[in-house]
Design brief:
about 25% helix; single chain; eight-stranded mixed β-sheet; alpha+beta
Length: about 325
């Protein structure tokens, strides 16, 4: 790559940039955006770093691009917002400015089209490792953003999709079982997660959810965030959790489906609470995404896991925390 200007142009060509709410986009010092009438902007930012969130020698460049945008967009889904714009700031080595960059841009452009996002700007620089920061903006009808802090005693605790699938993919990579085609489908959610935008918007529009978060850090950790913000506790029924299905051939590797579902991160499903009076109106699916009731919110601030054997115990937070000391 002979210049930063040419690199930026190479990125710009792969993304649509025409949209009525984007008054000024790529090519000036800053973007100028015009939110829709009666809407509020939801803004989130997310870092994605080589050797922390992905491995250059393991993760395909198109998966890196797709996942980088998907994980940032998931925070918009968790607020019940419609995805609108994103900004990409990226540093990369000169050796990655050719074929690797093309694959990365291709994956991110595919994600942008799928999520309905417009690239509105960003920045690029040269750096020894691949580092990036994504800012994603969404719109939500005024007063309808779903926060973490609205859960109330008696609310049903619900989750979308199936939990632990992304963690299973990561465990296969860690055990170097990802190269063969045999387990390709088990890697899909780790490589190409799907933010639940349609479900989040549906819950916000119909005012079903009293609180919501995405399962980026794992159920045990993200439920703790809801309970702390809302000043409540929860009871989770182990038998109700839609856990990943571990093939029989892999069961000798110590891959416990319930453990993966409780503590595995990067599923980017939605964990949300619904008033008990809505229980009969809560659909089993929104689009193709299943919705499962897995527990209830309690006044006592403890988070308890009710086991399949009838015993109960505190549900410890064992999901992703980059600053947690390793035991």
């Amino acid at each position: 790559m002979s210049s930063e200007e040419k690199l930026i142009e190479r990125v710009r060509r792969r993304f649509p940039i025409s949209e009525k709410g984007l008054t000024i986009g790529i090519g000036d010092d800053a973007a100028v955006l015009r939110p829709g009438a009666g809407a509020e902007m939801v803004v989130t930012t997310d870092a994605f770093l080589e050797n922390v969130h992905f491995l250059r020698k393991v993760h395909p460049p198109d998966a890196v691009g797709y996942k980088a945008l998907a994980r940032a967009t998931s925070d918009v889904a968790a607020m019940g917002a419609r995805a609108r714009y994103f900004f990409l700031t990226m540093g990369l080595p000169g050796a990655c400015a050719g074929a690797w960059l093309d694959g990365f841009i291709g994956g991110m452009a595919r994600a942008a089209r799928r999520f309905g996002l417009i690239l509105a700007g960003g920045d690029t620089t040269k750096y020894p490792k691949i580092v990036m920061s994504l800012t994603v903006m969404g719109e939500v009808d005024r007063g309808k953003a779903v926060l973490r802090s609205g859960a109330r005693p008696g609310d049903l605790l619900c989750v979308s999709g199936r939990l632990g699938e992304a963690e299973l993919g990561l465990r296969l990579i860690q055990r170097k079982l990802h190269a063969g085609k045999h387990w390709t489908m088990l890697l899909k959610k780790h490589y190409y997660p799907e933010p639940r935008l349609a479900l989040g918007e549906w819950l916000a529009t119909h005012r079903f959810a009293t609180s919501m978060i995405d399962t980026s850090d794992g159920l045990s950790t993200d439920l703790g965030h809801i309970c702390k913000a809302s000043g409540v506790g929860a009871a989770v029924f182990a038998s109700k959790i839609p856990a990943v299905k571990v093939p029989s051939e892999l069961r000798g590797l110590g891959l416990d489906p319930l453990g993966l579902a409780l503590h595995g991160g990067e599923d980017y499903e939605l964990l949300f609470t619904v008033p008990e009076r809505f229980s009969r109106r809560l659909p089993r699916r929104v689009g193709l995404v299943p919705v499962t009731v897995i527990g209830e919110i309690k006044r006592d601030k403890e988070i308890v896991l009710l086991g399949t054997d009838g015993h109960s115990g505190a549900l410890e937070s064992k999901g992703w925390d980059p600053f947690r000391k390793k035991s």
